[in-house]
């Protein structure tokens, strides 16, 4: 995930749902109400 040209590595996931949830959590942390969320 990227904000202000800074890339944050979220890890490697075997399960697509786990990866989507990790992305969503970080997106909320970085972008708050403006985060683009995955449908999980």
Describe this structure in words.
There is one protein chain. The protein is 40% helix and 10% strand. The chain is α+β, with helices and mostly antiparallel strands. The chain has one domain. It has a two-stranded antiparallel ribbon. The radius of gyration is 10 Å and the shape is flat. The mean pLDDT is 97.
State the shape: flat
Major sheet size, sense and barrel closure: 2 strands, antiparallel
Give the neighbour order of strands across the main sheet.
1-2
Question: Pairing-aware structural class of the strands and helices?
Answer: alpha+beta
Query: Low-confidence runs (pLDDT<50, min 5 residues)?
Result: none
Count of DSSP H/I helices: 1
Mean pLDDT over the residues: 97
Give me some keywords for this one.
two-stranded antiparallel ribbon; alpha+beta; 10% strand; 40 residues
Question: How would you concisely characterize the structure shown here?
Answer:
With 40 residues, the chain is α+β, with helices and mostly antiparallel strands.
Architecture blueprint of SSEs:
Elements (H helix, E strand, L loop, with lengths): L1 E2 L2 E2 L8 H16 L9
GO molecular function, one term: DNA-binding transcription factor activity
InterPro entries: AP2/ERF_dom_sf (IPR036955), DNA-bd_dom_sf (IPR016177)
Protein name: AP2/ERF domain-containing protein
